[in-house]
Design goal:
The protein has 132 residues and is α+β, with helices and mostly antiparallel strands. The protein has 4 helices and 5 strands, in the order H-H-E-E-E-H-E-E-H. Strands 1-3-2 form a 3-stranded mixed β-sheet, with helices on one face. It is globular, with a radius of gyration of 15 Å.
Length: 132
């Protein structure tokens, strides 16, 4: 996935996105898989004045992950955490389920996290316990 392909903001933001992707090969591979399947075409920054969505959003129709500008601000970037959540949402969004009658429907997910919870999650330490 080429972070600069549709992320239009400062070079520092593009660098932070690239660093987050490089720092987590698992997420990078998962996002590459989504890109290869056509489910992910690029990244975008939330528009100025847009409602705060601490975990960003994923538009399955456009194949775009919108990342919150707050993920790039302050001394503690949490771009990697946003990418981990968005990778899960994109994977889930590509799944379908079958009814008993055999009709197939896309799974859907709507994830909203309260801003206070988001702040607490961003403070949490992530400990890697081993390779999967």
């Amino acid at each position: 996935m080429r972070p600069s392909s549709s992320l239009h903001n400062s070079p520092a933001d593009v660098s932070a996105l690239r660093a987050a992707l490089s720092a987590d090969p698992n997420v990078s591979q998962r996002l590459d898989t989504q890109a290869a399947s056509g489910a992910l075409h690029g990244f975008a920054l939330a528009a100025a004045g847009a409602p705060d969505r601490p975990v960003g959003s994923y538009d399955r129709t456009a194949g775009t992950m919108t990342l919150p500008s707050s993920a790039f601000s302050g001394s503690h970037h949490h771009v990697g955490a946003v990418l981990r959540v968005q990778a899960m949402i994109a994977e889930f969004g590509g799944r379908t389920y079958a009814e008993n009658a055999g009709a197939s429907h896309p799974d859907t997910i709507h994830l909203e996290i309260h801003p206070g919870l988001s702040r607490e999650l961003s403070k949490a330490k992530v400990v890697r316990t081993g390779a999967r």
